[in-house]
Batch of 2 targets.
Target 1
Amino acid sequence: MLIMKFGGTSVGKPERMKKIAELVLSTPGKKIVVLSALSGTTNALVSIGEHLLAGQKAKAEEVIVDLEKHYEAFIKELYGSEAFLAIGQEIVSRYFIFIRLLAAGQFDNKSYRELLAQGELISTELFYQHVQERKISARLLPALYFMSIDENEEPELEKISERLKPLLSSLNNIEVIITQGYICRNHRNEIDNLKRGGSDYTASLIGSAIRAEEIQIWTDIDGMHNNDPRIVKKTIPISELTFDEASELAYFGAKILHPSTIVPAQKYNVPVRLKNTMDEKAFGTIITSKGTEGSFKAIAAKDGITAINIKSSRMLMAYGFLRRVFEVFENHKTSIDMVTTSEVAVSLTIDNNTHLASIENELKKFGNIEVDKDQAIICIVGNKITEQKGMLNKIFDALAEIPLRMICSGGSPNNVTVLVHKQYKNKALNLLNEGLFGLK
Ligand code: ASP
Ligand code: MG
């Protein structure tokens, strides 16, 4: 079984949706097709939900009207026959009746999450009818029948796998199974989601749950690149990555993948392939457990980082100090990315300032606290790079002109991370592109 996941831009125009039907058809074997919402839909649903939570029903209705028009135009181009156009119209009007029903009621966070799920529900239904029109043997398998998260919002892989077994064996003769990305049920059995960009995660959870042959993530670029093409002029696609390299890159800024995607795939050793719907011949990127060692693969950056420095003479030769510091972050459900220590101080970074004020307050009991906002993490990735001689030199030579606020190396052999003020981010990415890859 193959998992083929298509993102918002791959289904965002009627001709693109037709194109992916062809791609699915021309791929041999059985597959589970995971779809995102049409591009722009989840953003529109977010804005409808925000307006409703703020009690602004009229503003919400304006966005609903625009979105509905978008879908009405979409189906006119998607379906070829009057009969299927009528089915499409029925689907669109049914969803918009439901969206307005949600909007008219007492709108709370639960209704909001239900609203967010409508994007993937409608895109998969429209696609399913499109393949029906083309007489492809396919079925729609609702993600809400098997995809779930626990009270800590962690996917329940074992349960997902148990639920999928009978569902899939009942569809034994079907070539194409279509399901929704992103949406799931939470521990209260309510409709929830895997956070923005979560359709990739759905694909890898399904692929891992059923030990698929391969998880394919189809987007609109040809795989991972060695650097951020919005910031540096020249980038090169990377054909092979290890799971470790790919998770570092996804986590530290490569926008192409939801950061958790690699975790289940790595656990069950299912290869993840990144492919381009605009250029299906392009090789893309294959992510597996094997890799070539010792060369730089890519650089990624993550903005919006806050560095916190705790200076305390009580740390001197004390034990348990770091545990108490980390506990403060744990109590505030705030995860730490980078950590550096000296004998009397520790610096660490977070990417979520929601609880910063209370974290700062609690840390004060340990010593002097300094907070630097607007930092950027630059992450340099390559299989076992820190085990090779001279690799760190190359990095620091390239960055000679940039003040580095923190440096992390040795946590994993596959990456070196530095923290810079955001004003140096673009320059650092360009200097590394030239210094490590010879690209100008
Ligand atoms: N539709 C959701 C989003 O825009 C999930 C996804 O596309 O992966 O975030
Ligand atoms: Mg995405």
Note: The first helix runs from residue 8 to 11.
Target 2
Amino acid sequence: MTQTRVLGQLLAGVLALAGAAQAQQPAPLITNVQGRHTTSLNGRWQIIIDPYENGYYDYRHEPLASGYFANARPASPGDLVEYDFDTSEQLNVPGDWNSQDERLLFYEGTIWYKKSFDYSRQGSARVFVYFGAANYEADVYLNGQKLGRHEGGFTPFNFEVTGLVREKDNFLIVKVDNKRRRDGVPTLNTDWWNYGGLTRDVALVDVPAMFVQDCFLQLKKGTAGEVAGWVRLNGASSRQQVVIEIPEAGIRQTVTTNEEGFAPVDFTARLQPWSPESPKLYQVTVSAGADSLTDRIGFRTIQTRGTDILLNGRPVFLRGISIHEEAPLRGGRAFSEDDARLLLGWAKELGCNFVRLAHYPHNEHMTRIADEMGLMVWSEIPVYWTILWDDPQTFENARRQLEENITRDKNRASIILWSVANETPRGDARLKFLKGLIDHARQLDPTRLLTAANERRYADPRTQVVDDPLGDDLDVLGCNEYVGWYDGPPDKADRLSWKVPLDKPLVMSELGAGALFGNHGDRGARWTEEYQADVYEHQITMLRNIPSLRGMSPWILADFRSPRRPLPRIQDFYNRKRLISNRGERKQAFYVLQRFYQNLERGRR
Ligand code: GCU
């Protein structure tokens, strides 16, 4: 084979891959799927566990032309097909695989999922397949055709399948790979379990040829009655009329889009502001052509003024708790409305008006129930610890996850803070990386506050300083500290003072200590409830004396699994810093914090 021909083929190969890669991006994200006509694909899915990715690569590790995504079957007795979804085992979707099958508890690799379904098109012109999330990388195929790939375990994605879906015998196949990667977001090391799988709802979404793809409706910053935002149509080929209605407020606004289906929105309205005390949600309908989309939206403003956080123009203290997206009683990834009501109900019982959803976007039930219950939310993307700051792909990945998070939840009144990072090391590359994310978030959403959970440093043995250079670009300074647990005995907190040079609000985004429920002993004995309660007592005294403190979200509400916690009979691969055990038992520290929050609520600091 001549050299030119080899080069020609290589080039063709690269172009095909590039073309395929481009073509394989998910379609623009459809929002408010709950308000649309959908067909759920949740339930039992057949699976093939494929640690060697045998269904994707050949023995030369070249991608197969016909892998497991073809769902092949022997056409005759002589045919050789070495896999068969239909006789394979099954898993629940939504659900992580680790907590459904003991053999998979520590499994990191590929599992193929298949769902067969018939589909009668309800007169709708277009159909999309929507995934609430899949951890970590998902390659999606319908009827043997590649739809595309999505990377990132905690944000939604969708593909258009209008031309592919048929009346009978459709098979949707998803290769899910949760292998950790150095260039990933998150990267190799996390203090949470790497739950893999189709962890959230999967559904078919029916829409007219032209439909309301997305809209953003919130109060303009600093105004009590000016609703500003935009509407975006999909499938518009000319200027279109869009009607926005808020019947309860007597609002009926008509706007006209440009040729691409985009229209800015700006109108005045007398709306009761959303707040934890009265979490008012309005029915809002956006209609265009044959499509009409309804959502429940609260309207409120959130700003800072010096070291104050202002909700609807009034100073507020964030009485919070951190939460991982884990189903406390059942174990495994939380995904349902009931899971959300349980976790957020416990936070309310604790006296919270705020929750930090750590360290990644939680499922949409969490933010919608927070809207309903009146809990303000810190929403974060998994830029956690030490990711590859210099890698453009890693930045693109983080930027996309941020965009998907904001796109999905931008109409949730409960969300007041977008967090771009947790405990990341100071340095120029990191600063540039995070500034890039902050700029992007501000472009996407001019109405909310930007923060990050940073680390403090010692100026001298008795003085803590919160002066991470990233603070200059943030609206609210987040700080994690473990005085009394990783840093000295509980009473060390009594001897510390805090310096926060910037004139900005401080939120202590993590503090706490480990304890095993029911393990009692001396206050100085680690892992006892008494030790944990003692840490909280001293912390509360210390925090009261930090002038710019405007909130806190101790680590952590409920139990969560962690591969970094092997201590037998105490941790057993659980991080034990929670206030409520995985049987719902409240520890002494729960009541220490509850008392403090009740006093705060009564205006006694
Ligand atoms: C860190 C980190 C958490 C972790 C916690 C802990 O601050 O942000 O993800 O679980 O400390 O050590 O318990």
Note: The first strand starts at residue 37 and ends at 40.
